[in-house]
Protein backbone atom coordinates (compact mmCIF):
# COMPACT_ATOMS: atom_id res chain seq x y z
CA UNK A 1 0.00 0.00 0.00
CA UNK A 2 2.83 2.30 0.79
CA UNK A 3 4.31 1.48 -2.51
CA UNK A 4 1.12 2.41 -4.19
CA UNK A 5 0.99 5.76 -2.40
CA UNK A 6 4.64 6.42 -3.29
CA UNK A 7 3.94 5.50 -6.88
CA UNK A 8 0.91 7.81 -7.04
CA UNK A 9 2.93 10.64 -5.46
CA UNK A 10 5.82 10.03 -7.87
CA UNK A 11 3.53 10.02 -10.93
CA UNK A 12 1.79 13.13 -9.64
CA UNK A 13 5.11 14.92 -9.19
CA UNK A 14 6.25 13.86 -12.66
CA UNK A 15 2.96 15.08 -14.14
CA UNK A 16 3.14 18.40 -12.32
CA UNK A 17 6.76 18.96 -13.31
CA UNK A 18 5.87 18.11 -16.92
CA UNK A 19 3.02 20.65 -16.84
CA UNK A 20 5.31 23.29 -15.35
CA UNK A 21 7.98 22.38 -17.85
CA UNK A 22 5.57 22.80 -20.75
CA UNK A 23 4.40 26.11 -19.35
CA UNK A 24 8.00 27.28 -18.91
CA UNK A 25 8.84 26.12 -22.41
CA UNK A 26 5.96 28.16 -23.83
CA UNK A 27 7.10 31.25 -21.93
CA UNK A 28 10.68 30.73 -23.05
CA UNK A 29 9.52 30.44 -26.67
CA UNK A 30 7.46 33.62 -26.38
CA UNK A 31 10.44 35.45 -24.88
CA UNK A 32 12.70 34.20 -27.66
CA UNK A 33 10.18 35.41 -30.25
CA UNK A 34 10.07 38.86 -28.65
CA UNK A 35 13.88 39.05 -28.52
CA UNK A 36 14.10 38.09 -32.19
CA UNK A 37 11.50 40.70 -33.12
CA UNK A 38 13.39 43.40 -31.20
CA UNK A 39 16.67 42.37 -32.81
CA UNK A 40 15.09 42.66 -36.26
CA UNK A 41 13.76 46.12 -35.44
CA UNK A 42 17.19 47.21 -34.20
CA UNK A 43 18.80 45.88 -37.38
CA UNK A 44 16.33 47.87 -39.49
CA UNK A 45 17.01 51.04 -37.49
CA UNK A 46 20.74 50.55 -37.81
CA UNK A 47 20.52 49.98 -41.56
CA UNK A 48 18.30 53.02 -42.06
CA UNK A 49 20.56 55.23 -39.92
CA UNK A 50 23.49 54.40 -42.18
CA UNK A 51 21.61 55.87 -45.15
CA UNK A 52 21.15 59.27 -43.45
CA UNK A 53 23.92 61.54 -44.66
CA UNK A 54 23.87 63.94 -41.73
CA UNK A 55 22.94 63.87 -38.06
CA UNK A 56 20.43 66.17 -36.41
CA UNK A 57 23.05 68.83 -35.59
CA UNK A 58 24.14 68.96 -39.22
CA UNK A 59 20.52 69.15 -40.29
CA UNK A 60 19.89 72.08 -37.93
CA UNK A 61 22.99 73.87 -39.20
CA UNK A 62 21.85 73.40 -42.79
CA UNK A 63 18.41 74.80 -41.92
CA UNK A 64 20.04 77.78 -40.17
CA UNK A 65 22.24 78.39 -43.21
CA UNK A 66 19.16 78.41 -45.44
CA UNK A 67 17.49 80.86 -43.06
CA UNK A 68 20.52 83.16 -43.22
CA UNK A 69 20.47 83.03 -47.01
CA UNK A 70 16.78 84.00 -47.01
CA UNK A 71 17.46 86.93 -44.66
CA UNK A 72 20.34 88.12 -46.84
CA UNK A 73 18.07 87.98 -49.86
CA UNK A 74 15.41 90.03 -48.04
CA UNK A 75 18.03 92.56 -46.98
CA UNK A 76 19.21 92.92 -50.57
CA UNK A 77 15.61 93.56 -51.68
CA UNK A 78 15.18 96.18 -48.94
CA UNK A 79 18.41 97.86 -49.96
CA UNK A 80 17.21 98.08 -53.56
CA UNK A 81 13.89 99.52 -52.37
CA UNK A 82 15.65 102.14 -50.25
CA UNK A 83 17.87 103.09 -53.17
CA UNK A 84 14.82 103.46 -55.40
CA UNK A 85 13.00 105.51 -52.78
CA UNK A 86 16.01 107.71 -52.11
CA UNK A 87 16.27 108.31 -55.84
CA UNK A 88 12.62 109.31 -55.86
CA UNK A 89 13.09 111.49 -52.79
CA UNK A 90 15.27 113.82 -54.78
CA UNK A 91 12.20 114.90 -56.69
CA UNK A 92 10.77 118.17 -55.38
CA UNK A 93 7.30 116.82 -54.48
CA UNK A 94 8.66 113.81 -52.60
CA UNK A 95 11.20 115.96 -50.79
CA UNK A 96 8.47 118.37 -49.73
CA UNK A 97 6.36 115.49 -48.35
CA UNK A 98 9.36 114.17 -46.45
CA UNK A 99 10.07 117.60 -44.98
CA UNK A 100 6.42 117.95 -43.97
CA UNK A 101 6.50 114.60 -42.17
CA UNK A 102 9.69 115.55 -40.33
CA UNK A 103 8.14 118.88 -39.38
CA UNK A 104 5.03 117.12 -38.03
CA UNK A 105 7.20 114.86 -35.92
CA UNK A 106 9.25 117.74 -34.57
CA UNK A 107 6.19 119.87 -33.79
CA UNK A 108 4.34 116.98 -32.15
CA UNK A 109 3.43 116.85 -28.52
CA UNK A 110 6.04 115.42 -26.16
CA UNK A 111 6.53 115.10 -22.42
CA UNK A 112 9.62 114.89 -20.25
CA UNK A 113 9.54 111.83 -18.00
CA UNK A 114 11.27 112.21 -14.64
CA UNK A 115 10.52 108.80 -13.13
CA UNK A 116 8.90 105.49 -14.08
CA UNK A 117 7.64 102.67 -11.89
CA UNK A 118 5.46 99.61 -12.36
CA UNK A 119 3.86 100.11 -8.92
CA UNK A 120 1.43 103.02 -8.44
CA UNK A 121 2.29 103.45 -4.75
CA UNK A 122 6.02 103.74 -5.40
CA UNK A 123 5.52 106.40 -8.08
CA UNK A 124 3.26 108.37 -5.71
CA UNK A 125 6.09 108.38 -3.15
CA UNK A 126 8.51 109.66 -5.78
CA UNK A 127 6.00 112.39 -6.69
CA UNK A 128 5.86 113.57 -3.05
CA UNK A 129 9.66 113.92 -3.04
CA UNK A 130 9.55 116.05 -6.24
CA UNK A 131 6.97 118.55 -5.05
CA UNK A 132 8.92 121.57 -6.33
CA UNK A 133 7.62 121.09 -9.93
CA UNK A 134 4.21 120.74 -11.54
CA UNK A 135 3.98 117.03 -12.36
CA UNK A 136 1.46 114.66 -13.90
CA UNK A 137 1.08 111.01 -13.04
CA UNK A 138 0.25 109.11 -16.26
CA UNK A 139 0.30 105.55 -17.48
CA UNK A 140 1.74 104.26 -20.74
CA UNK A 141 -0.67 103.01 -23.44
CA UNK A 142 0.06 99.37 -22.60
CA UNK A 143 -0.85 100.00 -18.98
CA UNK A 144 2.35 98.40 -17.71
CA UNK A 145 4.22 101.49 -16.37
CA UNK A 146 3.38 104.65 -14.47
CA UNK A 147 5.30 107.78 -15.46
CA UNK A 148 5.88 111.01 -13.59
CA UNK A 149 6.05 113.71 -16.29
CA UNK A 150 6.35 117.47 -16.40
CA UNK A 151 2.83 118.83 -16.72
CA UNK A 152 3.19 120.66 -20.04
CA UNK A 153 3.37 119.19 -23.51
CA UNK A 154 6.11 120.62 -25.66
CA UNK A 155 7.63 120.14 -29.14
CA UNK A 156 10.37 117.55 -29.62
CA UNK A 157 13.30 119.99 -29.68
CA UNK A 158 12.18 121.53 -26.39
CA UNK A 159 11.62 118.09 -24.88
CA UNK A 160 15.17 117.08 -25.78
CA UNK A 161 16.57 120.27 -24.27
CA UNK A 162 14.42 119.97 -21.14
CA UNK A 163 15.59 116.34 -20.71
CA UNK A 164 19.22 117.51 -20.84
CA UNK A 165 18.46 120.22 -18.27
CA UNK A 166 16.79 117.73 -15.92
CA UNK A 167 19.76 115.37 -16.19
CA UNK A 168 22.13 118.22 -15.32
CA UNK A 169 19.91 119.04 -12.32
CA UNK A 170 20.30 115.53 -10.91
CA UNK A 171 17.48 113.55 -12.53
CA UNK A 172 19.78 111.06 -14.24
CA UNK A 173 17.01 108.87 -15.64
CA UNK A 174 15.06 111.69 -17.33
CA UNK A 175 13.87 110.99 -20.87
CA UNK A 176 11.28 112.27 -23.30
CA UNK A 177 8.30 110.49 -24.82
CA UNK A 178 5.65 111.16 -27.41
CA UNK A 179 2.19 111.95 -26.09
CA UNK A 180 0.95 109.17 -28.41
CA UNK A 181 2.51 106.60 -26.08
CA UNK A 182 0.80 107.86 -22.93
CA UNK A 183 -2.74 107.55 -21.57
CA UNK A 184 -3.71 111.18 -21.10
CA UNK A 185 -7.12 111.94 -19.64
Topology:
Elements: H1 2-51, H2 56-89, H3 92-106, E1 110-117, H4 120-129, E2 135-140, E3 146-150, H5 156-168, E4 175-178, E5 182-183
Antiparallel strand pairs: 1-3, 1-4, 2-3, 2-5
Order of helices and strands: HHHEHEEHEE
Continuous helix count:
5
Could you tell me the number of beta strands? 5
| Separation, N- and C-terminal Cα atoms | 114 Å
Helix percent reads 55-70%
Strand arrangement, major sheet: 4-1-3-2-5
Account of the 3D structure:
This protein has helices at 2-51, 56-89, 92-106, 120-129, 156-168; strands at 110-117, 135-140, 146-150, 175-178, 182-183. The protein is α+β, with helices and mostly antiparallel strands and 185 residues long. Among the domains are: 53-90; 108-183, Alpha-Beta Plaits. Strands 4-1-3-2-5 form a five-stranded antiparallel sheet.
Amino acid sequence: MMRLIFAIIAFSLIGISTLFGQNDTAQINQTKDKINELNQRLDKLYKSSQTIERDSVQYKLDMLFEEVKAIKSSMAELKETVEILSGEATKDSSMKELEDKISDIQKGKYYVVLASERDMERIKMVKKNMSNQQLLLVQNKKGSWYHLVLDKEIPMREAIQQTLNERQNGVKDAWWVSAKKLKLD
